[in-house]
């Protein structure tokens, strides 16, 4: 049994989960209506496990990530870390954010252009009053692949390549010796030649430090290359999840199938019709049904589930390691 399998199996019921969302809901007021950005999510990340959270823009994945970081408070449900509910007092959040760190997609935007690399990486340790600052900064830069670290201390962001800037952002997270990284589109702004280097770095950090990670992305190819498990999100809910090889080689939900179809090796392209997801207007029945190619093609009617697709809501998926899909058509073996 591999370490990855062990980590996946420990999250089967939330037991052993390092970071967990339980029946999480986050709603905002928008244009006089309630926007259900996260509308019932169960998600668990085990020790040393990398989970990819995949979906198109507007599906709620960034709001979910911000809520897991404690930057948004849930309307209902809870975030749990190491078995305990997240507390929202300033002292508790400060302690929590030493354990769970954010890596942003735009290093040029997240790095202060007036601060040197040293100052950027030292910011977290200074906030938390950690001793041996220079040693911490040097170690973090070295672990992020910027060696020798002293060579980068006095450089400014504009003097670095895109890949080097992203490594500085990662070093800033590592300086606090976290247990979990939440990486929001970590390679979206990088050239293809550099993307592989950053993904390899994240895998190395998992191997060397036992880090867990939630990687938020719209790119299923990235999920394939880095994740142990994948969770596919649509309109505030996870609609399919499971081991990455199983979900991405044999996707059961029509939405996952459509996302997979844009990859170069896909035999056919599935073009979704209808409106993009609007969290202020969640449709009845299956929330994907207005855009579903299986329903539009008549295959759902042939399977006798077309009425259910339009009218019967689906259960919220639990946080289990096995492959699962919230789909009436998939449930009858479609």
Automatic annotation (TrEMBL):
Q: Which domain of life is it from?
A: Bacteria
SMART domains referenced in this protein's UniProt entry, alphabetically: AAA
Keyword list, A-Z: ATP-binding, Nucleotide-binding, Transport
Family (UniProt): Belongs to the ABC transporter superfamily.
> Cross-referenced CDD domains, in alphabetical order?
ABC_NikE_OppD_transporters (cd03257)
Record domain ABC transporter: where: 19-260
The name this protein carries in UniProt is ABC transporter ATP-binding protein
One Gene Ontology term of the molecular function aspect: ATP binding
